[in-house]
Amino acid sequence: MIEEVGTTTEGDLIINVGPQHPSTHGVLHLVITLNGETVKKVEPHLGYIHRSIEKMCESLSYRQFIYVTSRMDYLSSHINNQGCALVVEKGLQIEVPERGKVIRVLMAELTRIASHLLWWGAMGMDIGAFTPFFHAFREREAINDIMEETCGARLTMNYVVPGGVMADIHPNFQKKVNEFIKLLKSKIDEYYILLTGNIILQERLKGVGVISAEDAINFGCSGPVVRACGVKSDIRKIAPYDGYEKVKFDEVFETAGDSFARYMVRMNEIRQSLSIVEQLIDNIPEGEFQAKTKAVLKLPKGEFYSRVETARGEFGVYIISEGGLTPYRIKFRSPGFSNLAALHHMVKGSKIADMVATMGTLDLVIPDIDR
Amino acid sequence: MFIVDYIKDVYNGVTSLLKGMRLTGYYFVHPKEIITQEYPEVKQVLPERFKGEVVMRHNENNEHRCTGCTACELACPNATIKIVTKFDITPDGKKKKALDVFVYHLELCTMCNLCIVACPTDAIKMAQTFEHSVYDRTELTKVLNKPGSKLMDGVE
Ligand code: SF4
Ligand code: SF4
How large is the average pLDDT for residues A308-321? Predict the structure, then answer.
């Protein structure tokens, strides 16, 4: 969909936000045309941290390329890895053992909670509230500790391998996750007292950055952005993978399509993810955590696609294989890119401060957009 | 009616702010809830799976388990490892391939663990170090097999 952008007239001011502006996330560069305080046009410029990840993956083997995707959406790195492993498993028809699947789902949901917590803290910062950041990081730290113990890293875990997971869970894993569930349950209400119920937040988010369901679909938005318009889009529900069909959870919807709706979708998703973790943590099936695979993986000639739901939306991996050791072409469909594309449509005509708030609720992770 | 709504709005607004302030105040007077670690005075003990740096296992006789098979070198996505092999003469006069130098470029390593998984003899492992800052990047290129070390008996 081609958006008609406002023309520059006499008296308009063009300013650069970023690439290092503290109120943007990461190295995002926005060229904004302003008329007074009103935003006429927002133009994202990409390329500051382009690492040509797709090209890089074409020279790596099917075991090696998975780790690179941790460097895209680093807040959902586990879920990205999972998507890549899924496409390799699809190509080679590897059946992942139940235990491996459950461990993957547990880790993915913990990652989702950690990602939403970080977003919540950063969201507060975007609109000028500093305290939530510390509260969010306190709970996120507990997840990071769990990750560190089992996967060996806090952010770029690289725990998923084709056929399962790299190592079995740490003996302390279940105990620690149960402690974390208790901790988060006692703290999650604090988030509502601290920020959600706060009059300043509500006034700044309600009715701001509105997008209709139709436009959101046309822009290719996914994840909480499109669910805030009431569109069914959760890949975990539409095309379940790794045993999501067996767990009970609700897809979270809002209908308003504004910033506050996106805020509420993410807040409620934390609870849903927590309930998935709760269902699975004491029911991890016994058995192998990894299927037996050949030392050298070669995908048959053909095209393969798989998609997963990351914390930000739909992440897709598309591989064309010529039957060799490395992919012939690889394409990632990252959720942040399409969500950013809708920014201009959401904020044109509103005030510049509202733009920052709207950007916060889009939950942009720049390496995911600019890869 | 307008006045009533207005007062209601003000009342709700002020109470929402006060609720938040009360929570902040609670943490202010409960220092026990603070979880900050005073690094570098207090250093956390990292879990044994933490991926900090690749090191080679050596036993007390300065023997390692690396046969120089280069499986780790091939598994590494970043060309971090370079294995240099040599030929040893076994007691019965045969030539045998053995490890000469195991070069490890810490500055290129992404701690992905693929080399550890690939090693058939369990010769390398991850160390729990994390303070890797140096003044010159050449200091990050390391030789992992200790000087004078040799292959452990019985490792093929
Ligand atoms: S951890 Fe990964 S990047 Fe580092 S040496 Fe091993 S395989 Fe290479
Ligand atoms: S460390 Fe292991 S994989 Fe690497 S050369 Fe030595 S024996 Fe082979």
Answer: 90
Q: Structural domain boundaries of chain B?
A: 1-36, 53-151
* Tokens found for residue A316: 């897709």
Interface test with A, best of B11, B44, B49 (most A CBs within 10 A): B49
A193–B20 CB contact, under 8 Å: yes
Q: Are A330 and A95 in contact (CB under 8 A)?
A: no
ipTM of the complex: 0.82
The domain that contains A194 carries what CATH number? 1.10.645.10
- Reading phi first (left if > 0) and then psi (alpha if -120 to 50, else beta), residue A135 is in alpha
Contact status, residue A194 vs residue A131, Cβ threshold 8 Å: yes
Helices (H), B76-125: 114-118
**Torsion B144-B49-B75-A365 (CA) sign:** negative
Two structure tokens written together for A302: 């053909």
Q: Count of domains in chain A?
A: 1
A&B contacts, CB < 8 Å: 66
Of the candidates A277, A338, A234, the residue with the CA atom closest to the CA atom of residue A114: A277
Q: What percent of chain A has pLDDT over 90?
A: 9
Tell me if A84 is assigned to some domain.
Answer: yes
The confidence band for A1, taking pLDDT boundaries of 50, 70 and 90, is: very low
pLDDT digits (tens, 9 = 90+) for B50-97: 888 888 888 888 888 888 888 888 889 888 898 888 887 777 777 778
Mean pLDDT of A155-172: 87
Looking only at the bridges linking them, the beta strands covering A329-333 and A313-321 are antiparallel
Neighbours of A4 (CB within 10 A): 6
**Of A126, A38, A128, which is closest to residue A356 (Cα–Cα)?**
A126
With H, G, I as helix, E, B as strand and everything else as coil, classify residue A155: coil
Per-residue confidence band for A24, with pLDDT thresholds at 50, 70 and 90: low
Backbone angles phi and psi of A108, in degrees to 5: -65, -40
pLDDT at A320: 92
Q: Closest partner residue to A149 among B20, B49, B113, by Cβ?
A: B49
Interface test with A, best of B10, B16, B30 (most A CBs within 10 A): B16
Q: Which domain holds residue A207?
A: 52-366
Which of B53, B78, B144 to probe ligand 1 with, by most ligand atoms within 8 A of CB?
B78
Q: Give the Cα separation of A65 and A80 in Å (integer).
A: 11
CATH number of B53-151: 3.30.70.3270
The contacts of residue A4 (CB under 8 Å, 6+ apart) are: none
Ligand positioned closest to the Cα atom of B68: 2
Across the range A39-48, mean pLDDT stands at: 86
Quote the pTM value.
0.89
Tokens coding B14? 């002020």
**pLDDT recorded at residue A157:** 86
- How large is the greatest C-alpha to C-alpha distance in chain A, in angstroms? 70
Phi, psi of A203 (to 5 degrees): -65, -35
